[in-house]
Every structure is written in structure tokens, then in C-alpha cells.
Design brief:
Layout lengths: L11 E6 L6 H10 L3 E6 H5 L10 E4 L13 H20 L4 E4 L1 H8 L10 E4 L7 E9 L14 E7 L3 E4 L9 E6 L21 E5 L5 E4 L24 H12 L1
Parallel strand pairs: 1-2, 1-3, 3-4, 4-11
Antiparallel strand pairs: 5-8, 6-7, 6-9, 9-10, 10-11
Length: 256
């Protein structure tokens, strides 16, 4: 379903919705605030050809418990994407389409082999704490270059909500050039693996990755949940870390 009529120069964002996905509306709202038109559509409707990935300018995979996290977080969604839409996805990548995956969407991009890119194997596994983590975190953008990060001049704050978000990689050194976000502590310094600043125990405090082009971005925290100051539980006490610039940068990447 489309969330609004297109305006001149307004890019279209495709948001596929799997059974169990529950953060699609927040993601659509974030892109709408950034000046995009969004289309949320069930995967079953995508299979039937109601629209194609290449009919849109941005692909955004939302968070939530897709397929109830059967077989592990994001794996079935990743399999669905590659098995049903693999050709379209490769065409979208070859056309330099910006792609973002958040939480379960990040897990799906890793499962589909799009992240971290460059042939580097990675996995997202159970949190080191052994439980579901729902808390606000602080993220430092970069250092990997990416259109998604253009205009982010400082750390952003947003919540995490996941049970399987601990990034593991075969070669931590090789993945350094793909790091899009790292967890920080409350003072703005490195989390240094400390809980709860690094809420899941990810290697190198990595919260997000980009591929070799910088156009494919995945992250575990939910930036769509802090695009308006009213979403911040500490509003009135602090006024920093808004994540709206991330979505504005994604829109600029296809309109500039």
C-alpha cells in the first residue's frame, strides 16, 4: 500500500513487510519526514508482482520479529529476499540503489550476504547477556564512508530492541573499513565492550555496517525511533542525538 501521492522530485521508498514485522510504520514515518514517499507492501504481494524493487529509489527493510525469528533472527527474511527477489536485488544493487536494513532488516542483509560485503563472513547471534535488550544507546557514525552518513556531524541516540544482535566476524581487522556505527558510553567515549553501553557484546562495539559501496547500510539500533524530540524519554533534560539526518541523507542520495 502506498502511504501518499508522490510529489515532483519525491523519491519512492519500498518497505517490504513480512509476517511478524512491527516497525514498518515508524520507518515509513521517518522517511516521510525526510521528504520521501513510502510504499509498505507484504512480501506475498511482492511475490505476486504488484510492484518491483526497481520501481522504487530506496529499499528499506524494517525491524520486528519477521516470521517470529524462526530459524534465528532475520534468517527466514534473508532467505525470502534472496530466493524470491534475488535477481531484482542484484539489479537494484547494480543500479546503486540505497538500501537500509534496521534490526531484523540488518540481520536479513547479513543473512542474504549483502553485508558486510567484500566477501567477509559475518553473523548476528544471541546477545552476550543471554536476554532481550531494550534500552537507549549512543552511536558514533563512521568511519566508513557512506551516503547514508553524510550530514551526521555527531553521535545519534536511539533505542535497541533485540535478542540476537551480537555481531561476530571471521576477521575483525578486515571488517574495519565497513563500520558505519559504533556504540559509545554515556560520556561519548568508546563503549569498549562494556555492558550496557554495548548492549549485545558485538565485536569492536560495532552497531552497524556498510558494504563496499557505502550504499547498503545495516544497523541493529532503531534510528527511526528518534527522528522527533518528542520520541526521546529524556526530552526536556537533553536535546541531542536526533537521528533524522540519517534518513535525510538517504533521500539526498537519490535526489541530489
Amino acid at each position: 500500500m502506498s502511504d501518499g501521492a508522490a510529489r515532483a522530485g519525491q523519491p519512492s521508498v519500498l518497505i517490504p513487510v513480512a509476517p511478524g514485522t512491527n516497525r514498518n510504520q515508524e520507518l515509513a514515518d521517518a522517511f516521510a519526514r525526510a521528504g520521501a514517499r513510502t510504499t509498505q507492501i507484504p512480501l506475498a504481494a511482492l511475490r505476486q508482482g504488484e510492484t518491483k524493487l526497481v520501481d522504487h529509489q530506496i529499499l528499506a527493510l524494517p525491524g520486528g520479529f519477521s516470521y517470529g525469528d524462526a530459524l534465528g533472527a532475520g534468517r527466514l527474511l534473508g532467505l525470502d529476499i534472496t530466493s524470491w527477489f534475488g535477481d531484482q536485488l542484484q539489479e537494484a544493487v547494480s543500479r546503486h540503489m540505497p538500501i537500509i536494513g534496521i534490526c531484523n532488516g540488518f540481520q536479513a542483509l547479513v543473512a542474504a550476504g549483502l553485508l558486510p560485503g567484500g566477501g567477509q563472513p559475518a553473523a548476528l547471534v544471541a546477545n552476550e547477556s543471554g536476554r532481550f535488550e531494550c534500552r537507549w544507546v549512543t552511536l558514533e557514525p563512521g568511519p566508513a564512508p557512506s551516503p547514508w552518513l553524510d550530514g551526521l556531524t555527531g553521535p545519534i541516540r536511539c533505542p535497541v530492541a533485540h535478542g540476537e544482535g551480537r555481531l561476530t566476524v571471521a576477521d575483525p581487522v578486515a571488517v574495519e573499513g565497513h563500520v558505519a556505527f559504533r556504540y559509545l558510553d554515556d560520556t561519548g567515549g568508546p563503549a569498549a565492550g562494556r555492558y550496557p553501553h554495548n548492549p549485545n557484546g558485538s565485536v569492536g562495539d560495532v552497531a552497524g555496517l556498510v558494504d563496499t559501496t557505502g550504499l547498503v547500510l545495516g544497523l541493529m539500533p532503531h534510528p527511526e525511533d528518534h527522528v522527533d524530540p518528542r520520541q526521546d524519554p529524556q526530552r526536556g533534560r537533553r536535546h541531542d542525538g536526533l537521528a533524522r539526518g540519517l534518513f535525510e541523507a538517504g533521500v539526498r542520495a537519490v535526489t541530489a
